[in-house]
Amino acid sequence: xxxxxxxxxxxxxxxxxxxxxxxxxxxxxxxxxxxxxxxxxxxxxxxxxxxxxxxxxxxxxxxxxxxxxxxxxxxxxxxxxxxxxxxxxxxxxxxxxxxxxxxxxxxxxxxxxxxxxxxxxxxxxxxxxxxxxxxxxxxxxxxxxxxxxxxxxxxxxxxxxxxxxxxxxxxxxxxxxxxxxxxxxxxxxxxxxxxxxxxxxxxxxxxxxxxxxxxxxxxxxxxxxxxxxxxxxxxxxxxxxxxxxxxxxxxxxxxxxxxxxxxxxxxxxxxxxxxxxxxxxxxxxxxxxxxxxxxxxxxxxxxxxxxxxxxxxxxxxxxxxxxxxxxxxxxxxxxxxxxxxxx
Length: 343
Fold this sequence. Notes:
Layout: H1 8-15, H2 19-26, H3 34-46, H4 53-60, E1 65-70, H5 76-91, E2 95-100, H6 105-116, E3 122-125, H7 138-142, E4 147-150, E5 160-164, H8 166-179, E6 185-189, H9 195-210, E7 220-222, H10 228-239, E8 247-250, H11 253-265, E9 275-277, E10 294-296, H12 299-315, E11 325-328, E12 331-333
Parallel strand pairs: 1-2, 1-3, 3-4, 4-5, 5-11, 6-7, 6-8, 8-9
Antiparallel strand pairs: 10-12
Helix pairs in contact: 1-2, 2-3, 5-12, 8-9, 10-11
């Protein structure tokens, strides 16, 4: 099918002018008379001419483009981060291209090759769960393309990153359950090969230790990716224990919803018999009843800060930053799922 898009050559033929004159007139070049500029711009509007921004970018050696690699866009946290990135990038005149690794290191490696050939000026990344090697990111440095990681960041190399303090956040969530009188507190943990979920597990353990509560291995449920289905499996395991946990801290809200629904279906009163705390403040946490106490992980702000840092590194060529870590403060949002009366 023939492309019907109007080109510079079409405009030149229509007005009997050279393509270079047309191009300069569209760019308000001072060397082109005002009458010619108006004539060209009027005709361009009539014919629906759209400048080829990609070709223009090649000439200027600027693409105003940032590549984003996320594990999954169907996870609310990542969609909110993307929204924060995109909002700030748009204000600054940048466009973004989004890729999903689907939590596969192989796919992540393939995406980096694509981005290295797409002339993006910066790349923002959240590592896949499988990623344990980082060689595929090294070429960006050679190409002079700044990298900014968010949430899941490389643990063995210095990088620019936007994070929260997962350890402290988990400690706060567990401490809240303890302050509500819980003494037998379970934890549904994320993949322990991922630093953020390991930190949340360590924060949970530290809170128990500080308050002289025993860590019971039967009360810890390990998952691969904290899916709703995995939460159901862990909740059913807890239900089979001789003594139910009176508090459960979940490393995300999907598993917190699983526990709440499975326990309530089994006749367990929430929060009177078992109090529940999630993590991330997904919309479902304030829709389901009782509403779920959770940690606000500042996902949108994380995206905004990632975009700010990325664009600063792109535009300030004099600035040389080996590594900069920006840590955002979280907050505990207390709702009905943990509001048990203390004795």
